[in-house]
Amino acid sequence: MPTLGNPAGTIAVLQKYNFRFQKKFGQNFLIDPHVLEKIIRAAEVTKDDFVLEIGPGIGTMTQYLAEAAREVLAVEIDRSLLPILEDTLSPYDNVTVLNADILKVDIAEIAREKNEGKPIKVVANLPYYITTPILMGLLESGAPVSSITVMVQKEVADRMAAGPGTKDYGALSLAVQFYAETYLAANVPLNCFMPRPNVGSAVIRLTRREEPPVNVHSQELLFKLIRASFNQRRKTLVNGLNNYAGLSFSKEEIQEALRQMNLSETVRGETLTLSQFAELADRLEKAR
Question: Do residues 69 and 231 touch, judged by C-beta distance below 8 A?
Fold first, then answer.
């Protein structure tokens, strides 16, 4: 059974190895078994699954994953954690630790080697400063990933799951929802971590879509429009798109496309749905 996941077990390991938390890696270790069990349940890990864990830390969640999955590959960037992981994961013969930066790891290659190319599940307690690059990297790469279950800053989880017209709705909401269905599994209080973070956390599962929810001719243009429209939230959509360096549509072209969509020229980007952004992208491309 897992020996970590509670304050006493975690403190004992950290003292044994005289471990110092590294601010640059955003390290906060989970010390609540209930939360760990919730993550495993939310990720729907079974004995058929190959799981990629990002940032195992001292191996707390890795122990729970090893109990639940067929095989686990844990990618850890901090070399000083390797001897600790060797110790805490020694009872498990279905875990491999890879010392690497996840942003430089070829996940498709791992799926080929370890899972016959079939989609893998990703589970992570992510460092909050690098959450978005890691998640978008996983989603945009097209690597065979069936779901991503992650502990993230509460505010980021809310943004990923937000709908049009809400204060949390933005470019991240649309980008994530283009690739995945979101499920907010749990809110996690500050006292479930060591050291305690300054912000609340949440567990969110992103289940990869087989097909995007909208048809759009140019995904590149779609995401440019989305970024431009949230770049300056206070501006109307027309001004936001017109002032964005990466786009070259005239004010008149944008106004005409909105008119064709029966939208006011004073509309703001945060009120548009993903399908409206896709329609706008197609209309603007056609106008060219």
Answer: no
